[in-house]
């Protein structure tokens, strides 16, 4: 009887943790070629060639191994700001696929740090910056 109750409680948790196709990549030793902005702005990369032109460093090849550009694309944020700055995302179901909303939370410290965040989205997913 206890086993049945435990199993029934576990089923809703599995559904609540439904996987999305959106993921954040760990950023190895790479730097953007272009100058960073003071606020994170999303930049979309739909091919390995475009990504290689925009970033330099030993880790570029490592990042490209994790992305299938025939099914996915990269959204990158590169900026300089407080060490406590954060970029996160929320995924909603849209009519044509997943809708990803990125959010920026500024840090409160006065230290100036370089930030780089890479996210992989399915080709059919759309994205926007939240408020």
What topology, given as strand order, has the largest sheet?
1-8-5-3
Main β-sheet, in a few words? 4 strands, antiparallel
End-to-end distance, in Å?
49 Å
Stretches where pLDDT falls below 50 for ≥5 residues?
2-18
- Using the alpha-carbon principal axes, give the shape: globular
Helix/strand-derived category reads alpha+beta
Average pLDDT across residues? 86
N-to-C series of helices and strands: HEEEHEHEEEEE
Counted beta strands: 9
Structure description:
- The protein has 131 residues and is of the alpha+beta class.
- It has one domain (20-129).
- The chain is built from 3 helices and 9 strands, in the order αβββαβαβββββ.
- It has helices at 2-16, 48-54, 60-65; strands spanning 23-25, 31-32, 43-45, 55-56, 72-82, 86-93, 98-105, 112-122, 126-129.
- It has a 4-stranded antiparallel β-sheet.
- β6 (86-93) and β7 (98-105) form a beta hairpin.
- The radius of gyration is 18 Å and the shape is globular.
- The protein starts with a helix and ends with a strand.
- Mean pLDDT is 86; it is low at 2-18.
């Amino acid at each position: 009887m206890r086993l049945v109750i435990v199993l029934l409680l576990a089923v809703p948790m599995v559904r609540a943790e439904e996987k999305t196709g959106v993921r954040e990549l760990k950023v190895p030793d790479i730097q953007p070629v272009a100058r960073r902005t003071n606020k994170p702005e999303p930049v979309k990369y739909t091919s390995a060639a475009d990504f290689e032109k925009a970033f330099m460093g030993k880790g570029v090849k490592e990042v490209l191994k994790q992305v299938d550009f025939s099914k996915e694309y990269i959204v990158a944020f590169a900026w300089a700001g407080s060490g406590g700055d954060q970029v996160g995302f929320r995924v909603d179901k849209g009519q044509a696929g997943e809708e990803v909303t990125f959010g920026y939370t500024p840090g409160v410290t006065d230290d100036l740090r370089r930030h780089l965040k890479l996210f992989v989205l399915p080709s059919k997913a759309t994205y926007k910056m939240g408020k």
